[in-house]
Design a protein that fits this description.
With 251 residues, the protein is of the alpha/beta class. It has helices at 2-25, 45-51, 57-65, 98-116, 144-152, 168-175, 196-209, 225-228, 243-248; strands spanning 28-37, 69-76, 85-90, 121-126, 132-137, 182-188, 211-218, 231-235. It has two domains: 2-24 and 79-248, von Willebrand factor, type A domain (Rossmann fold); 29-76, no CATH class. Helix 1 (2-25) packs across helix 4. Residues 25-29 and 77-81 have low confidence and may be disordered.
């Protein structure tokens, strides 16, 4: 099983590498509008064309010196240096087999992203009220033996809430996660029922620790998970072809 997980993780890691390189190369994500400036890299094409016109050339050069050329204004990428990445996998009985292998492979790729970005990371496997397996991965040397054991193990029980909405604040506290903007990932195939009171408690906790929750739901409706998630993506399978998978590998 470990061999299969590592092979699948290689596919996710290659996609993650491409996404991370794209973030590094492209500093401009969103066009906000136009502004007067003299940045040649953002100058409108018509300004460049005018520079080639003998009649207009001097005016363009003057406006260049006065920072009065029309240039695009972009909103740049959010800086990479952020807080922890915490990955929570559903290990209920319905996740057994290929789903579990692919989910573990994705978790391994996300841990790699965290290490590349010098971010603290934790892996949590959960199965309703049947227990959990929690592994912190510090910024220093990982415990490779513990990581291999986490990847190979599987709880296989479950209930009607197979992601730790009630327990997540307690898990977070016990992990002693460093402060900072936290990316929290839930991956489940469960249709969850979450009371309004529990949803409010969880959302309040997220705000208190600066956590953003992205939920991937495998071949099921998000239902009440949509109430507590900042983003929720329904996916047919845990595969590089799915937008939700691509989204979290671009963190």
């Amino acid at each position: 099983m470990l061999h299969k997980i590592c092979n699948l993780a290689g596919k996710f890691r290659r996609l993650a590498q491409a996404k991370q390189r794209q973030k590094t190369k492209h500093g401009f994500d969103e066009l906000l509008g136009l502004k007067a400036d003299n940045d040649l890299g953002r100058m409108l094409p018509q300004e460049l064309v005018a520079l080639l016109d003998p009649v207009l050339e001097q005016d363009v050069l003057r406006r260049f010196m006065e920072r009065q050329l029309w240039c695009r204004e972009f909103q740049g990428s959010e800086p990479v240096g952020k807080g922890p990445i915490i990955i929570v996998l559903d290990e209920s009985g319905s996740m057994v087999g290929e789903r579990n292998h692919a989910a573990k492979a994705l978790a391994l790729a996300l841990a790699w992203i965290a290490r590349q970005q010098k971010r603290w990371c934790a892996l949590i496997a959960y199965s309703g009220d049947s227990g959990e397996r929690i592994l912190p991965l510090s910024l220093g040397k990982w415990d490779e033996v513990a990581l291999m054991d986490w990847l190979e193990s599987f709880i296989g029980m479950g209930s009607d809430l197979d992601v730790p909405v009630r327990e997540m604040p307690k898990f977070y506290e016990s992990l002693k996660a460093p402060k900072g903007k936290t990316d929290l990932i839930f991956l489940t195939d469960a249709a969850c029922n979450i009371s309004a009171k529990l949803a409010k408690t969880f959302i309040d906790w997220k705000k208190s620790v600066q956590a953003k929750l992205i939920t991937l739901v495998i071949d099921s409706e998000p239902e009440d998970l949509a109430k507590i998630s900042d983003e929720v993506h329904r996916i047919r399978s845990v595969d590089v072809s799915e937008y939700g998978v691509e989204r979290i590998l671009s963190l």
